Amino acid sequence: LPVFAGWVLSYDKPILLVLEDQCHLERAVRYLIRAGYDWIVGYLKGGVEGFYNAGFPTEHMELLTVHQLKAKIDRGEELTILDDRGQDEWDQGHIKGAKHIYVGHIPERMSDIPKDKPVAMFCNVGHRAGLGASILLREGCREVYNVLGSMTAWKAAGYPITTE
Question: What CDD domains is this protein classified in (predicted)?
Fold first, then answer.
């Protein structure tokens, strides 16, 4: 939360926290206030599960394994692979043909990302890719995938990477 809040939150909009366990509430509020986010209007009791159980409408992102991603690449499917890792991670190796935009820069680089074509989000293990995918969905991208395990799983599967 302390690292990612600045990438996705706005100081001029109310914040509703979604926490699986209320014991994390005080710490989350403290982190946000220290970062200058003080318009915290409440929290969702019961977390996401409570939201589901109440019958409210939800959205979700699709998940891909690295094997499914590799199959899409091999079939030549139209797909943007968006790697949102840091520059040093990218330089150590990435999927050939992937586009690199650091997760914190995605909101300001939306014009570089096709909203009407599939995008597979990729990072080191999937956490930042999930955040990046959420940003893309919020910004109107229609078909967004979070690649489970991302680079860690890609390497474990023995799939090729490049440093070019």
Answer: RHOD
Distance CA 135, CA 162 (A): 27
Which CATH class name applies to 62-156? alpha beta
pTM score, whole prediction? 0.81
Q: Which residue in this structure is represented by tokens 């699709």? A: 62
For 73, the token pair is: 């690449």
Q: If residue 74 lies in a helix (H) or strand (E), which one and from where to where?
A: helix 66-74
Predicted confidence (pLDDT) per residue in 102-111, tens digit: 999 999 999 9
- Report domain extents, the chain: 5-53, 62-156
Three-state secondary-structure class, residue 163: coil
DSSP state of 111: G
The strand pairing partners of 99, in sequence order, are 82
